[in-house]
Design goal:
Layout: E1 2-7, H1 15-29, E2 33-37, H2 51-55, H3 67-76, E3 79-87, E4 90-91, H4 93-106, E5 117-124, H5 129-140, E6 146-147, E7 155-157, H6 168-190
Parallel strand pairs: 1-2, 1-3, 3-5, 5-6, 5-7
Antiparallel strand pairs: 3-4
Bound molecules: flavin mononucleotide.
Length: about 210
């Protein structure tokens, strides 16, 4: 059983990285593996070629920035935790690049994320946390995922690297999210109730 966390910060050892270590402690204590992947700033945006959807390759045609490794790890994982800094009241641009490609590629044919556990966290200096947290949730909200929450929105405050650890409440919220995600991963793994089948969705638009 494994949870993969995507750290959307371009900064090494920044606030998201340090908050994810809080989550790691809880997840590993529950006996679930935890891996953080950090794509960094040099990732391409989706170029809307639709090759992933047309071929069902579960990969992006742009193969030179590590995003395909992240796609593969997320498809393998039992849970996915999305973490991002708040940039101008939304997710960081590089995280948006990754999530657009990840979600499109994973939705090839039968959605690869159906009934995986999902959770989200963001860090910020002051404002825009709720918008960003909900933006992260929204990317999973159309993937038939089992979204897990904490007892408050997944938002923790800190500007310079490490400051987030002084946000006692934010740290507690993150820790609880980790415990809840690990628990749900185990519940689903041990459940005798089979997950419902998923099926390819008929895509329509509003002109026909
Ligand atoms: C381009 C940019 C935009 C930012 N916009 C916001 C913002 O809208 N609201 C806010 O509270 N903090 C904002 N911040 C601060 C970061 O969200 C904050 O420092 C965060 O904890 C960084 O996380 P990291 O250390 O994991 O990169 C911004 C920082 C950058 C570099």
């Amino acid at each position: 059983m494994k949870i993969v966390a995507i750290n959307g910060s371009p900064r090494k050892d920044g606030n998201n990285a340090q908050l994810l270590e809080v989550v790691r402690k809880e997840v590993e204590a529950a006996g679930v593996e935890f891996e953080v992947v950090q794509p960094g700033a040099n990732v391409h945006p989706c170029m809307a070629c639709y090759n992933c959807l047309d071929t069902g390759s579960l990969r992006c045609v742009m193969d030179d920035d590590g995003v395909n490794d992240i796609i593969a790890k997320c498809i393998e994982a039992d849970g996915i935790l999305l973490a991002s800094p708040v940039y101008h009241s939304g997710i960081a641009g590089n995280m948006k690049c990754v999530l657009d490609r990840l979600m499109l590629a994973a939705a090839c044919g039968d959605n690869q994320f159906h009934h995986k556990v999902g959770g989200a966290l963001c860090t910020l200096r002051r404002s825009g946390g709720s918008e960003t947290y909900h933006q992260l949730l929204a990317t999973m909200d159309c993937m038939e995922m089992v979204i897990v929450t904490s007892d408050y929105w997944g938002v923790a405050h800190g500007a310079d690297p490490g400051e987030v650890l002084s946000d006692t409440e934010g740290v507690e919220v993150a820790a609880k999210l980790g415990r809840n995600m690990a628990w749900m991963v185990k519940v689903l793994a041990e459940s005798k109730v089979p997950v419902p089948e998923t099926a390819h969705r008929t895509m329509t638009n509003f002109i026909r």
